[in-house]
Please model this.
Amino acid sequence: MTPQIKGPAIFLAQFAGDEAPFNSLEAITKWAASLGYKGVQIPTFDGRLFNLDLAAESETYCDEVKGICADAGVEITDLSTHLQGQLVAVNPAYDLVFDAFAPEHCKNNPQKRQAWAVDQVKKAAVVSNRLGLTTSVSFTGSLAFPYLYPWPQRPDGLIEEAFAELGRRWVPILNEYRDNGVTIGYEIHPGEDVFDGATYEMFVDATQNHDCALINYDPSHFLLQQMDYLAFIDLYHDRINAFHVKDAEFNPDGRQGVYSGYQSWVNRAGRFRSLGDGQVDFASIFSKLTQYGYDSWAVLEWECCIKSAEQGAAEGAPFIASHLIESPKSAFDDFAGGESDELSNCKILGID
Model:
């Protein structure tokens, strides 16, 4: 029997807010369930929804979180440490802007900020285990990304050293995940040092092919880079442990192409869209993931510069549900089959 993708699920980060029903885990999970979602991906960096530090100390709190989700009628798909993972590796060019992701006591202190981030991501491994989860999602961070385009000419060995350092920072964290029976699905994303298949391979090499360094597959980032996002699944399907269902479109013209990030989102050649409004071929993605046996969650990540979050969420659940593929209970041509045994097969082939 072919494994089946689970869903629909929703990443709560983009919907959290200061007003009900988006300001507490109890309210937002009930809201998600009312739209048809069966799973929620919880951001560990938003205290309105989840307290990672408390979860790392208290089994009782973890039980309460599980109970809140169960009462709402949803499962926890995984924990997200995107913002903390980003702070594991920060190029000095980004120090000021990424300080916004850090608590007050770590601001203006890159070493303290990094130590806090490492501790946070490690705590998420322990908490994931307590919640009965086996996957999580995160970012790798970026040391080399300011030097993406080779002008001015990069010094020899710069990129190699950046990835070697990524490996040195992430291997102890990944070992913590291995000890807790949890994997990290890194979202392959421009702005991170790991932004495509080639850089993911470099990262895996730097982590000594660590078995917990997996992939959160998000085709929107590949479409905006004009990558073959279906061939990516062919290449890396055995490393995909999570799936962000996010749409995008790329409309180059005589003025803009892939490098159009100085423009506002609505005016870029490449921009994220709500599900069904972009150019991603989700029918082929769901088919290919099912073909390769992906049986974890399909999680809506909503980011759109045109449509409201509420409308995007409402439309997202039925969109994902319509793309889920039920596992076949038998082969389609079984009706035409007959009994077979070794002797019969030999006779058919003319073998004495």
